[in-house]
């Protein structure tokens, strides 16, 4: 089955697309081949519309309703452009799996735990004629989980190692880690959000360049600055960093308002823009290292870093310096391009939803039980899709305990050379 995974992250810097082919290998095992991937840019006006809502505590219902459909149309257009660039016909895509755009992730004490991803799947299905799986976080939250991090499901299935303990660290807008203790397989995996990834750095860069730049390319600004250790220590005293996992966070806590406070403090203390960006970069580095030392395995052989932060040499060098006995390297050195990981993740989650298998890891999200994440919106190919799923399941002897769902226990990567695309404008 060919599934196209879509994701827009907390940085709202583009739509990641990854076309994957999944084939059954044995009961509980699946092969994965990445066929193509690219990143589509958001229309500038739509990106601004998203940020306007993310940065304010209130929004008009008309604006929220409209944004849901506008984002659905943007995701559909990204798929159409992807098909054109990759010379793929829509008929070759069996399913679209769309994460959507997170507007709010509510996990604070005293409130009903909830999460909201928008980008209307019905718009995508109607425009493309392809069935869609979307809204994948809510089922985990309904099962008592945090709804994040979901990447641990993919990480554990593909990278669990019988001899070496690994960590997979994503540094997007928010940082998250999956720990894979040696010899324990997916059942031993656990994960949580480490705190801010690029979100504070990006906010400062936008502030100091008046929006001309959106991130610190190659860590150039941070490299020129001097870290204010006092400000770093102040931020690391925040209760979130001392909260036991599983835990998750987002822009609701470490967003532009939080960054604005830190920028104001830095300005009052006489820090230059470069000093401030260096300090915010150090906060990301030290929050990750604190998470590893406090909540990670005692012996960590290797860290694989994905997300935009992996291309920031200051972040990478800081992590290696803080973890001197652990090898720190880029995720893409495993043979999968880092830029495709999020798209692959949601393609996998969508595939498993369609096949009726649990696709969360309660040890990572805090859910009370395994759950099937995703909502299915039928497209014009839906009956054909059901026939394919029925045929595949007839040939697989999957068993499950009463009251639970079957679940994959291994993912096999079929290597092929997929050229790295440029960001499509």
Using brief descriptors, characterize the structure shown.
eight-stranded mixed beta sheet; globular; alpha/beta; 13 strands; about 20% strand; five-stranded mixed beta sheet; about 425 residues; 15 helices
What is the overall shape? globular
Reading the helices and strands in chain order gives EEEHHEEHEHHEEEHHHHHHEHEHHEHE
Low-confidence stretches: none
Oligomer: single chain
Q: How many DSSP helices?
A: 15
Radius of gyration: 21 Å
Secondary structural class: alpha/beta
What about the largest sheet? 8 strands, mixed
Distance between the termini: 29 Å
Strand portion:
15-25%
Secondary structure: number of strands: 13
Helix content: 25-40%
The chain-level mean pLDDT equals 93
Task: Describe what you observe in this structure.
The structure is a single chain. The strands form 2 sheets. Strands 1, 2, 3, 4, 5, 6, 12 and 13 form an 8-stranded mixed sheet that branches. Strands 9-8-7-10-11 form a 5-stranded mixed sheet, sandwiched between helices. With 425 residues, it is α/β, with parallel strands linked by helices. A hairpin with a 2-residue loop joins strand 7 (166-171) and strand 8 (174-180). The model has no long low-confidence stretch (mean pLDDT 93). The two termini are 29 Å apart. Helix 1 (44-54) runs antiparallel to helix 2 (61-86), helix 6 (199-208) packs antiparallel against helix 11 (273-295) and helix 11 packs parallel to helix 12. The longest helix has 26 residues, at 61-86. Helices cover 38% and strands 20% of the residues. The protein has helices at residues 44-54, 61-86, 121-128, 138-142, 151-159, 199-208, 220-224, 229-236, 251-254, 256-268, 273-295, 313-322, 341-354, 362-365, 382-394, and strands at 2-8, 15-26, 29-40, 95-106, 114-118, 132-134, 166-171, 174-180, 190-196, 302-306, 327-330, 375-377, 410-413.
């Amino acid at each position: 089955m060919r599934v196209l995974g879509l994701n827009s992250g907390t940085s709202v810097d583009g739509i990641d697309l990854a076309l994957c082919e999944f084939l059954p290998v044995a009961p509980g095992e699946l092969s994965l081949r990445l066929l193509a991937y690219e990143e589509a840019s958001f229309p500038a006006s739509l990106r601004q519309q998203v940020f306007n809502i993310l940065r304010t505590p209130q929004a008009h219902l008309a604006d929220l309703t409209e944004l849901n459909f506008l984002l659905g149309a943007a995701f559909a257009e990204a798929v159409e452009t992807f098909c054109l660039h990759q010379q793929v016909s829509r008929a070759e895509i069996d399913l679209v799996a769309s994460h959507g755009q997170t507007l709010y992730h509510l996990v604070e004490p005293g409130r009903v735990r909830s999460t909201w991803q928008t980008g209307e799947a019905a718009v995508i299905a109607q425009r493309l004629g392809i069935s869609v799986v979307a809204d994948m976080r809510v089922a985990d939250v309904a099962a008592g989980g945090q709804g994040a991090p979901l990447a641990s499901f993919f990480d554990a299935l593909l990278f669990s190692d019988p001899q070496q303990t690994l960590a997979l660290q994503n540094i997007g807008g928010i940082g998250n880690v999956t720990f894979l203790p040696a010899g324990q397989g997916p059942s031993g995996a656990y994960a949580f959000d480490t705190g801010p990834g690029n979100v504070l750095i990006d906010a400062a860069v936008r502030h100091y360049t008046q929006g001309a730049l959106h991130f610190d390319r190659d860590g150039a600004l941070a490299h020129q600055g001097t870290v204010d250790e006092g400000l770093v220590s102040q931020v690391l005293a925040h209760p979130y960093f001392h909260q036991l996992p599983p835990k998750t966070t987002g822009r609701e806590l470490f967003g532009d308002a939080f960054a604005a406070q830190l920028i104001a403090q830095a300005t009052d203390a006489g820090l230059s823009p470069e000093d401030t960006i260096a300090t915010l970069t150090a906060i990301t580095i030290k929050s990750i290292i604190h998470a590893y030392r406090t909540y990670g395995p005692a012996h960590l052989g290797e860290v694989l870093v994905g997300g935009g932060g992996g291309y920031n040499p200051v972040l990478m060098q800081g992590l290696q310096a803080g973890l001197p006995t652990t090898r720190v390297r880029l995720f893409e050195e495993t043979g999968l391009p880092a830029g495709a990981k999020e798209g692959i993740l949601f393609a996998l989650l969508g595939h498993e939803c369609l096949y009726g298998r649990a696709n969360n890891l309660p040890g990572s999200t805090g859910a009370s039980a395994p759950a099937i994440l995703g909502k299915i919106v039928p497209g014009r190919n839906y009956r054909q899709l059901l026939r394919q799923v029925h045929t595949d399941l007839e040939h697989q002897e999957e068993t499950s305990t009463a009251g639970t769902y079957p679940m994959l226990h291994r993912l096999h990567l079929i290597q092929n050379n997929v050229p790295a695309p440029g960001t499509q404008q």
